[in-house]
Design goal:
The chain is an alpha/beta fold and 190 residues long. The protein is 22% helix and 35% strand. A 9-stranded mixed beta sheet has the order 6-5-4-7-8-9-10-11-12. A 3-stranded mixed beta sheet has the order 1-3-2, covered by helices on one side.
């Protein structure tokens, strides 16, 4: 019985690995994360070995398919930088839509910069960026009392994110102004 197991290891090695959906991670890195960087028996390759893919913050999801007799296919969905976040230490890092910090991200200089103090409001701000996606958001600064959104021209402040979402149409009505949004209405500064 032991001889059959060892024989299957060598008789059915993984010979072909295909990787798709990777833009930021190299194929070699994906193979390493998936546990396919050496010789491994196809019959014994499983989810426990591919679990390393989920250790990378860049991997949002992965589908690993084994095809008899010697093929493994990996289809990735990678996270994409959504904003830059200035941590309290002053370090600026890229974050994905779900708030995952993406190490060594490049080309993120044009993304909105999130900063602030007080309770962490980064998840709320990331959701707000989706709502304000049609506007050119440059920075979002949060404090315990509210959120200031700096646009290409003008700015918006609100102490209540629900009110900001409700009255977001005011931004296009007054594109070059400073807008203050309250639960009871909008104030526009000339």
């Amino acid at each position: 019985m032991l001889g059959a197991g060892v024989g299957a290891w060598f008789a059915l090695p993984v010979r072909t690995v295909t990787v798709s959906g990777n833009a930021r991670l190299s194929e070699a890195r994906v193979r390493a994360l998936a546990g396919l960087d050496g010789s491994f028996g196809w019959l014994y390759y499983g989810a426990w070995r591919a679990r390393g893919l989920l250790d990378s913050p860049w991997v949002q999801s992965a589908v690993v398919t084994r095809t008899f007799p010697d093929r493994v296919s990996i289809a990735l969905t990678e996270r994409v930088p959504r904003a830059r976040w200035q941590r309290r230490t002053g370090e600026v890092v890229a974050v994905a839509r779900d708030g995952t910090v993406l190490p060594a991200a490049t080309g993120t200089g044009g993304l909105p910069l999130i900063s602030g103090w007080g309770p962490d409001r980064v998840p709320e701000v990331l959701a707000l960026l989706d709502t304000l996606g049609r506007y050119t958001v440059q920075t979002v600064t949060y404090t315990p009392s509210g959120v200031r959104v700096k646009l290409k021209t003008g700015s918006v402040w609100s102490g209540d994110l629900n009110a900001l979402v409700k009255y977001a149409g005011s931004i296009s009505m007054y594109p070059d102004r400073d807008i203050y949004i309250y639960p009871w209405g909008v104030s526009v500064q000339e």
